[in-house]
Amino acid sequence: MSLWSRISNAFRGERVNRELDEEFASHLEEAVAAGRDPEEARRALGSPLRLREKSREFQVAESLDSLRADIVFGWRQLMKHKVTTAAAVLSLGLGIGACTGAFRLVDALFLRPLPVSHPENLYAVSYEGLNGRGVPAKWDTSSYPLFLEMREAVKGQAELVDAEYAMHADLTYGSYQQMERVTLGPVSGEFFAKMGLQPALGRLIVNEDDLMSHPRPVAVLSYDYWMRRFAGDPRTVGKTFKWNDTLFEVVGVAPKGFTGTEPGTLIEVFLPALMDPSAKDANDASQRLFLRPERGVGLASLTSKLDAVYHRSERERAKGWTNLPKYLLEGWPNAHLSLMPAAGGVSELQSEYGLALKALGVLVGLVLLIACANVANLMTAQAASRAREMALRVSLGAGRVRLVRLVMIESVMMGLMASTLGSLFAWWAAPFVVARISTASNPIQLVWQPDWAVTAFGLALTLGVILLFGLIPALRASSVKPSLALKGGEGPQSQRRKMHLLIASQVTFCFVVLFIAGLFTTTFRKLSNRPLGFDSGRVLTMPTDAEQPQSLSRWNALAERIRAVPGVKSVAMSDWALLGGNSENGFISVPGKPKTEVLTYFLNITPEWRTTMGIPLLEGRDLRDGDMQGRTAVVNETFVKTYFEGGSPLGRTFLVGPHQPIAIVGIVGDAVYKTLREPILPQVYEPMLATSKDGKLKELRSATLVVHTEQSDPGSLMQSLRKKIEEDPTFRVSRMRTQEELVSAQTMRERMLATLAAFFAGVALLLAAIGLYGVLSYSVLQRQREFGIRIAIGARIGSVAQLVTSRVFLMVVTGEVLGIVLGNLASRTMASLLFEVKGNGISMLILPTSVLLGVALLSALPAVVRAMRIDPVVMLRSE
Question: Where in the sequence is the signal peptide annotated (predicted)?
C-alpha cells in the first residue's frame, strides 16, 4: 500500500476497521461456502481482533495513528476539566498577548528597518556631553551649516544626508481661512538619492533644489498623504500650496511605505531643508544627520574626522557668545561626537519611551512567568492524580517517550489555544497603548503591519511557554514506577517540594510586579499633584497666526472682541502657553554680582496675563501698557532667591547679554514653565512689545491668546471663540487646547505606565492567589489521611491549620525577600522614570508585602476549612 494511503487511513480509523471486519467476514463466508465448518473456519482464521491489528500495521501509518489517538485523548482530558482548562488558557493567553503586544511596540518603534537601500549600513550622528545646566546628556541635533562642513570632510569616504526634525505646520492650497495642519519634513537635496528611493509619481527633491544660494520652493508628498488627501490623483503634481508666505510646487510623490526617518511620526510633505527660514542659522540645531560609509571605510576614522569638524565649528561659534557661564566657555565644546546604528530610524519617541517600554516588557514577562508557574503546578497536580493511569500504561508496554508525548500534547493544545487568544489580544493592545499616549496636537503614528520579527517572536514565545509549563510535568508523569503507583503513589513529599518552589517563584515575580506598579502609580500621583503655581482650570489657550505681521494694536483689538464673547472672564496674550513645550532660556548677569551658572526662562506677556493665569503678585506691580520690552520686567520668586539672596530686587536691574539694563518692577509666585519634572528655574516676564535692536516697534506674526472663562468647561466656548477670531480674515487659530489638557499631556507617559502596571499587578495577584489555592488544596488532598489520623488522636484546629499552611507561608516569605532584592535592583535601573520616589523607601515595600500576605491568608482559608472537615472515621476505615 502506498505511503499516502497509509497516511490518509490514519484519519479514517473507523472506516478502516469496518473494511477489515468486512474482509474477515468475506473470508469466513468463502470458507463456509467451500464446505468447511463455521467454527473450524473461525479457529483457522484466528482472533478477529488480532487479525485486524496486524492488518492495520500494513494499511495505516502507525506513528501517525498513535499521534491522532493521543490528540483525541488529550482533547477529551481538557474537556473533562473545562473550568481548569479555561482558567489556564485565559491566564496564558493574557501573558502571551501582553508579551507579544509589547514586542509589537518595540518592533514598530526600534526594530523595523527603514524602507531604504541597505538600512543596516545607516548611522546617525549623535553627541554626548553636558547640557546648559551642566547635567550629562545625549542629543542628535546639528545645524545645517555644520552639516555642510561635515559632508565636505567625509566626501568620498561616506555619504552624509540631512533630515530635519519633523514639524507640524499650517499650509493652504486655497485661501488663508482654508489652512490645514500637516507634518513637514525638510531634507537635504541628496537625501532621496542617497537613500536609494524612487518616486511613485513625478520626481523627488534633488541637490539643485537645496542650494545655499537659491533654494527652490518645491515639495514632495508622502504616498499615504497623497492617497488620503488627493485620492491618488496623478494631476496632483503641479499643484501649489502656501507656507510661510512662500508658494511651493508639488513635484512628486515619495515611494509607498516611506514616511520619513522618525518612527512614530509620519511625514506628509517633504521640503528642501533650506526652505526652512531657520536652516541657515548656525545657532539653530534642528537637523539629524545620517551617514552611510563607503565599502572598506572604518567608523572610527569617520567619527574622528566628524568630531574634529564639530569641535572646530563650535569653537568658532562660541566666539560670539558674551554672557555664558565660565564653566561652559572653558574647554568648549564639552561634548564628543559618535555614530549610532540607525537602521530603524531615530526619533524623540524612542528616547522618551525606550526605557518605559523596557519596564513594560519586564512587567508582562513576569506576569507570563507567573501564569506558566500556575499552569505547571496545575499540570503537576493532574499528573499526580493520573499516576495509576500512567502505571497501567507502563505495565502494558508504553514507553517513556509515548507517555511524555501524551502529556505534552495536552500542553501543546493549551499553548496553541492560549497563543491564538494572545494574538488577538496583542493585535488590539499595542495600538490601544499608543492611543493612550498620543494627542491631537502631537499624534503618534506607527506602522503596525506584521513582519517576520513579530511572527518569529510569537512562535518562539509559544514554544517557550509550552516547554516551560509542560515539559517538567510530562517528564515527571513518564517516570512513574508501576509497583509503587499501583499501591497508592510514591513520593508525595517530593512532589509538594517542587510545587512549593514554584510558589516561591510566583511570589517573587508577583512582588516585583506589585513593587514596580507601586513606584509608577506613586510617580504619577506625585507628578499629577505637583503645585503648578497657576490656575489651570477654566483656561483656554489659542495659538493664533496672522496672514501678515500685524501691529500690537491690531492684536489688542482682537483680544477686545474676544472679551465681548459671553462666558469670557479675561483675555491675555503671551508668546506661548505654559507647559506647551516651547521655551526661551539664557543666562543673565546682575551688575556688581558674580555671574551664575543657572539658566533663566523668558516669556513675553501682556499686562493681563498674570491675573488671567492666576499667578499671585508678591511684591511691586504688574506690567503696564507703557512698559517697553528690554527695559522693564517682572521676575519670579526663584529669580529673587537665586540672584538677590532673597532680598528685595525692586528697582534693581539685570543684563541679558550686552544690551541695556532691565529694571525689575514686580515679583510674582513661582510657576511651572516647560515641564512638570524639572525644578522651578528663575523666570523673567517681559512686556509683549516686539522691538528690534534699534528700539523700533516690530509687528507680530503669531501669539497665544489665553482666555479665562466663566464656564467650568472652557472647551464649550471653542467654536464661538474660533468664529469670533476668524471674523477677521487676517487671523486664524491653528489649534485650541485647554490649559488642563496641556498639564495632562505632561503626565502621559506616567499615566500609561501607572495604568498598565496597576492592571498587570491585579492580574499577577489573581494568578498568585489561584496558584496558592491550588497548591494548598493539592497538599490537603495528598495528606488527608495524615490529617484524619492527627484529628483522631486529638490534634487541635490550630495545629492542623499550621500543618496545612506553614511550608507554603515559608515559601511566601522567601519569595517576598527575593522580591525585595530584585525590586530594588529594578528601581535603580528605572530611576529616570520615577519622580520623588525611591525604591528603598519603607512605604514602597510595606504595600506589596502586606498585600501578598493578605492574599496568601485568603487563599489558605478554603484549604484549612477542608482539612478541618476531614472525617477521621472515613480516613481510618480506608487505612
Answer: none
